[in-house]
Design goal:
Elements lengths: L2 E6 L2 E5 L11 E11 L1 H7 L9 E2 L3 E9 L11 E4 L2 E2 L8 H4 L10 E2 L11 E5 L4 E2 L6 H4 L2 H14 L12 H5 L10 E5 L5 H10 L5 E6 L2 H10 L3 E4 H7 L9 H16 L11 E4 L6 H8 L5 E4 L12 H6 L3 E4 L5 H12 L5 H4 E7 L3 H9 L6 E5 L2
Parallel strand pairs: 11-12, 11-14, 12-13, 14-15, 15-16, 17-18
Antiparallel strand pairs: 1-2, 1-4, 3-5, 3-9, 3-18, 5-6, 6-10, 7-8
Length: 389
């Protein structure tokens, strides 16, 4: 079969006769039609993260079921499906994490396109249990971003945003049910308007029905994009420092802390009618310098969720500020299997603007390297998709 195979750092080859995957009786064989391009693909290609070659890239996959295993009853040939990039390796879900509902944190997690072969190939085999059927009315060249770019911020917003103390006074069903979700009517700040930050903004505005979404980035075109996705306000953090003659990269200690505090006050000033209340900060930037700004920006007794993957450690962790503001700091990772059906339904109900989130559809499998270079050059505003066939 044809596949985009990574043999080493920056050694990506399009192979026409790569070995086809084998199926177990509980698997489905899927014709991979489109994949989404993620910064993780770029990190693997550039050798920033370790992997075992040869490796077929691609972890955002949408395709058509070609064949079902002998024990599969829930799917049929011809069904359109998406595959989560991370799913349990213990299919009986008996490891400690899976028993607690954290199927995205399974002790034997399978990471498609990193730990095992991905979807940038004509065929991929996956457990039927973790292959989620999606309505054929959803275009596959848009559906492919749902498994990661949409489901990851969905989980962050649905399950990782509630301040810890709220569980003492409110029932979980009230906190997490869509009709009464804690986020409804709240104010959210999203740092980083990219392949994941864009969906976070869109989901916060449309699905979770927050009152205000403030998008923060350093590029005006991304902030214009954020407005189309549902942001009520935008802040260009680089422009803020430039307009105030602040050389932020040259500052240290108290001077830097003062500059960060000034930016945070500027962000929250957009919420004057709500007494400057920021209920949630979602950091999708993947830049360590945004975390201290998030700590300063979020209101007391509220939450920061780290979604983006910073390549370097945070220099100023601001322990005292975190304690004083009584903050809940949550990490997040992928999406549990029990939330994937809700994600798919949100898409099928038209509550996610996939047509806006996917901004670049013109790449073929043979143009994989070009797509990665375009991502690095800032030519991909939202998410790009790769046509496999």
């Amino acid at each position: 079969m044809k596949a985009a195979v990574l043999y080493g750092k920056e050694d990506l080859k399009i192979v026409n006769d790569f070995e086809e995957p084998t199926m177990r009786e509980s698997d489905v064989l899927i014709q991979s039609k489109f994949t989404g391009l993620c910064s993780t693909d770029r990190s693997l290609y550039r050798g920033f993260v370790p992997f075992r070659p040869p490796l077929i890239l691609g972890h955002e996959i949408a395709g058509v079921v070609k064949e079902v295993g002998s024990s599969v009853a829930e799917l049929d040939a011809g069904d359109h499906v998406i595959i989560p990039p991370v799913y349990p390796g213990c299919e009986d879900e008996t490891c400690p994490s899976c028993r607690e509902g954290l199927t995205n944190r399974c002790k034997r997690s399978v990471f498609i396109g990193h730990g095992v072969h991905g979807g940038n190939a004509e065929l991929i085999a996956a457990p039927a249990r973790y292959s989620f059927k999606i309505d054929k009315a959803v275009p596959l060249d848009e559906a492919c971003i749902v498994p990661d770019a949409v489901s990851t911020p969905f989980h962050a917003l649905k399950s990782r945003c509630v301040p810890a103390h709220m569980f003492q006074c409110t029932s979980p069903s009230e906190l997490f049910d869509k009709t009464s979700h804690w986020l409804k009517g709240k104010n959210v700040v999203v740092f980083g308007v990219g392949g994941v930050g864009g969906p976070a903004i869109n989901l916060a505005a449309r699905y979770f029905q927050v009152k205000n979404v403030i998008a923060v980035d350093i590029f005006d075109n991304k902030l214009d994009f954020a407005k189309k996705l549902g942001a009520t306000h935008t802040v260009n953090s680089r422009a803020y420092f430039e307009d105030n003659n602040i050389a932020i990269k040259e500052l240290t200690g108290r001077d830097k802390a003062k500059a960060i505090s000034g930016l945070a006050k500027h962000i929250s000033s957009l919420l004057a009618e709500d007494k400057f209340q920021v209920d949630l900060v979602v950091d999708c930037s993947g830049v360590p310098d945004t975390f201290p700004v998030g700590v300063e920006t979020v209101s007391k007794n509220r939450t920061i969720v780290q979604v983006g993957w910073p390549p370097k450690p945070v220099n100023a962790f601001l322990n005292q500020k975190i304690m004083d503001k009584y903050l809940t700091i949550n990490g997040t990772w992928a999406c549990p299997m029990n939330e994937m059906e809700e994600v798919v339904k949100a898409v099928e109900d038209g509550l996610v603007d996939l047509n806006l989130l996917v901004t670049n559809k013109g790449y073929s499998l043979d143009q994989m390297v070009q797509a990665i270079e375009d991502l690095e050059a800032g030519k991909i505003l939202g998410r790009a998709t790769i046509a496999i066939q």
